[in-house]
Amino acid sequence: MAATEAPDSDEGEEGGRENNGRSSLQDLTDHIQRQGQYPAAGGGFADIWSCLLNSSQSQTMGQVVAVKVLRTARLVDDNELKGLKGSQRELAIWYTLSDHPRVLPLLGFSLDFGRYPSMVCPWMENGTLHNYLNGAGKSWRLADRYRILRQICSGLAYVHSRSIVHGDLSCSNILIDDNGDARLSDFGLSAFVPLAQASSPTNSPDDIFSVKPSLKFEVSLDTETTVSRSESSEIKGNPCFMAPELYHLGDDSTHRKTFSSDIYAFGGIILQVLMLPLCLPIDPIHAAT
């Protein structure tokens, strides 16, 4: 079961713009200036650096951007090939989706933050949906919450229409932009689904990227490699938003993330958006005892 477009959208965002004819992903290595000596934020597998983008590709000189840098120490066996393929996969999938208004734009990549390509995107000052709900979003009316849910549904429907499973959907992976609108992000656990299970075909990343000879890596990944890696990898993600069938209960069977498991995660998002700050504690449980 894949997500379908939310009805009665007043944003004109049904379906995304195709990437056909779009220029290749920009190498922004020489245009990124770090702000500070330490990451501004971080997740389970990556650090987020606040930087300035000084490039003709940015709307304004000195645009604040976020650079997502994979933590190499957390990669399995610190394997160079796996780490490179992981960053390639996320770049390829994110690029495939980033033209949609409900997906966080991917501006380009940088080779100056470690051994693997890092992803460059606009800085979202409002932060994650979860944090926003516990801050400025407390004043949201019910209509505002429905609007956000409709936007998330629109973005997820587009992801599924491109034969892609998000794989890690949660309120922490949805960002709020300057207009107060939702943007899907974090495609590190996303994967192209087998064509037999997909509702519509998707462009191969090989057709998307044209790589300059001077670059130190090749941003290309075929669909079969992506699906195979997804199926064989240990299940990862936010346990609060994972469908029950994804949990390993001591058996040797493979539990691959699907469109349906994304829908289950969206159900958890609905609960939080409609109920926060009532349904879950803001502070860790141990801090309240």
TrEMBL record:
Region (Disordered): 1-24
Classification via InterPro entries: Kinase-like_dom_sf, Prot_kinase_dom, Ser-Thr/Tyr_kinase_cat_dom, Ser/Thr_Kinases-Pseudokinases, Tyr_kinase_AS
Highest taxon above the source species: Eukaryota
GO molecular function term, any single one: protein serine/threonine kinase activity
Annotated coiled-coil segments of the chain: none
Ranges where the Protein kinase domain occurs: 34-289
Pfam families, sorted: PK_Tyr_Ser-Thr
Protein name: Protein kinase domain-containing protein
